[in-house]
Amino acid sequence: MTEKLSLTEVQLIIRDSLYLALPDFFWVIAEISEIKENYTGHCYLELIEKHPDEKNVRARAKAIIWSSRYRFLKSFFENTTGESLKEGLKILIKTKVEYHELYGLSLLISDIDPAFTIGEMAMKRQLIIKKLEQEGVFSMNKELDFPVVPQRIAIISSKNAAGYSDFINHLTGNSFGYVFYTALIESAMQGAETEQGVISALDMIAENFHLFDLVVIIRGGGSQSDLSWFDSYNISYYITQFPLPVITGIGHDKDMSVTDMVAHKALKTPTAVADFLIDCVAGAENLLIEISSEIKDISRIIIEKNRISIETFKIKLVSAVKSFSSVKERALEIIRQSFIAGTSGYLNSNSLSLSGLDNTLKILKPENVLLRGYTITTLNGRILKKSDQTKTDDLIDTQFSDGSVRSKVVAKGCKTLKS
Fold first, then answer.
1. What CATH number does domain 135-282 carry, 1.10.10.10, 3.90.110.10, 3.40.50.450, 3.40.50.10550?
2. What is the pLDDT of residue 1?
3. Fewer beta carbons under 10 A from the terminal one: N or C of the chain?
């Protein structure tokens, strides 16, 4: 082909070819990736189609709904589905191709089928529920023990949300005067940031879970569209694995989200959650009062029963003591008499022994020994018992009963005495 074409001519050829190939409107399934409404009321969208893994994009196209048509479609879609047109939503659109030499290809939307979106939302929701059930985690948070006195509460909410203010005011202003300790972990509660915000808040609480009794996820009232952000597999899975009971009060009166379904307990509104917690503490207080009353009654019965037993035992003990004392007195008297008799005999016996010993000592006195013809010989004042204790020329003294003599050793000899 040797003909030279201008860029405009090429663009017009493409446009005419597209119009010839696709002259009429046709229905297309797509997901909204971006959506913007400009000041004139026109709605500009970016549509995508994802791979089955729901991560990678396989097709992308721009689309537009002119303002005159957009006002009708937006109102009809929201009233039918309870959902607004937003990012991440799958829709079935009636469209035709529009091609402009300056702005390229776009899809001109003339209609949106709300029944398709309702079916997609329900299907997505059912798939999440089924997946959680197949993984065996759907009811795990419900199986946790609920605290008897839930007072330390971690709250996931937006601090500017009316529902959060209602919850705090209702909880702290309770008529019983109960004290609750609350900690707010902020998170977006609607829009595309909801999932990541709630999960991040749960992570923060999990790091300090020992400081809390339970977790409360609350937000004020909202549309079905607001509720749909809590039909999230990731939020729901985090709750099933959480170490503390989770209570939801997401502020809706119709359907429950998947987040509500997996929570330990789901309530309609933030104030309903506050009422529930107050009732739990009141129930614990009433239980303590009942237990206290039962303990008092049982204690009274036990005391009375033991008082009677003690009185009976006292009477028996007094009688036994008297009887025991009488027996012991007689036994002590017998022992006393025996002791007196035994002591007297022992003293008499020892008196005779002492007399014998005294006579023996008298006989053994040195002066009495000398009177019987014995002598005592000393050398330098030392009594001699053997002859070898002396030597020749020693001067020795001999004591008799009537006096003493001094002798000189002139000779030594050995003589054995025979009896």
1. 3.40.50.10550
2. 56
3. C
